[in-house]
Amino acid sequence: MTAFNDLMAYTRETEALGQVMGRLGWDQETMMPRGAAEQRGDEMAALSGVLHARRTDPRVGDWLEAAQATDPAGEAALRLIRRSFERTTKVPARLAAALAKTTSIAQGKWAEARKAQDVAAFVPVLDEVLKLKREEAAALASGGDLYDALLDDYEPGARAADLEAMFGALRPRLVALREAVLGSAHQPAELTGTYAETIQLELSAKLAAAFGYDFTRGRIDKAVHPFSSGSGSDVRITTRVAEDDPFNCFYSTIHEVGHACYEQGISPSYALTPMGQGVSMGVHESQSRIYENQLGRSRAFTGWLFSQMQEAFGGAGAADADAFYATVNKVKPGYIRTEADEVQYNLHVLLRFDLERDLVSGQLEAADLEEAWNTRFERDFGYPVDKPSNGCLQDVHWSVGLFGYFPTYSLGNVYAGCLNKALRESVLGVDAALASGDATPATAWLKENLQQHGGLRTPRETIRHACGFEPSEAPLLDYLEAKFGAIYKL
């Protein structure tokens, strides 16, 4: 037990420093002065070096060899620490620091290029990030597939070939549903009107509270790209506002609250341990997507949101609650992944999945990304990209080195479909509560069956434990076809 206790005490300090680095990233997106980007890059590189040194300290290997666990939580801790140690020791400290600095700088250059609609200004730094990520992938892969090595950071145990098969099963039914919906004679109305930013933010905070976000351990700020960060007692989210589209703000908030509530819901006994955070990005995304879509875009909850918008804005842009529900879920052409409806969202992800695999493998270079993106987008969606911020500059992920991250969004949707099926079969009165603005029956089930366990199990085991069956794409597809078939009278 001495080796185990020493290892866990050391790991707590490492995890605490990791949280500090995460807070620096949050600050960079929300509060940091524009002129601080270069200095922040140096700060991130320095802290990354400290973390890399701690995670590769030979004592960790010695403790792992000697440590013995006495319960499932201890066994999970050793499994996760061993995995981190083995992966981190493969990456040279020089490379870890270079990645931290370069991606910190690239994030600012991406934001500037996006604002200026200037892909050429972003290409050089993206090329630097890409070269470093290829080097990291080669170190991690040890002769195996480069993309799988990066994917494993976000979804441990997942393989691109397996995801490709799952996505291949998703695509035909999604495309068929999209064509049927867009070709239907019954088309919900568009949202109209102008909705003041201050009131949107007030209502978004009310929505966050309705889904159980604990403001004593969290906060909401604005950012270019909504995100969630932190864990345990300090979990922060961001949202964004467009005065002609309040749904952007509201559903970005609910989405990020799903992430945040997962972190806030993990057992306090796991704080600052490897189990004290979401087990994978796919499982994390399952929480944000079920909060946002199966719960937040349900007929029951949108009925309550309709009344809230009438009260806050003096109108909700729809004649009644049924029309409002259809408008919230309207399927329409669009460029932006984060604003996409449930039917088309995964098609946006599959585009990115294929492009980033080509970027990592070297089949596609940074200089050719815009043309490849635009060609693929027009092929998949039937209309051309009109500007870079609606194309290859819309997402922050590649600028910060998150290659292998995108497929976890669709995997999260698949998991959310499974969880929704299990939730509805297990809990009575979910819709009745949602209709009054109370998501507690649903969120309490998710906390009990999934969130509290953090990283105790592997990702697929986590979903299987919560649902009672093996995850597959079928529940998601069945849910989408039933929901949108009814809305569009198919």
From TrEMBL:
Keyword Metal-binding in annotation: yes
Listed PROSITE patterns: PEPTIDASE_M32 (PS52034)
UniProt binding sites for Zn(2+): 255, 259, 285
CDD domains according to UniProt: M32_Taq
Record keywords, A-Z: Carboxypeptidase, Hydrolase, Metal-binding, Metalloprotease, Protease, Zinc
Keyword Transport among UniProt keywords: no
Cofactor note: Binds 1 zinc ion per subunit.
Catalytic reaction equation(s): Release of a C-terminal amino acid with broad specificity, except for -Pro
Active-site residues from the entry: 256 (proton donor/acceptor)
Entry's EC annotation: 3.4.17.19
Domain of life where this protein originates: Bacteria
InterPro entries in the cross-refs: Peptidase_M32_Taq
Function according to Swiss-Prot or TrEMBL: Broad specificity carboxypetidase that releases amino acids sequentially from the C-terminus, including neutral, aromatic, polar and basic residues.
Family affiliation: Belongs to the peptidase M32 family.
Protein name: Metal-dependent carboxypeptidase
Upper classification of the organism: Bacteria, Pseudomonadati, Pseudomonadota, Alphaproteobacteria, Rhodobacterales
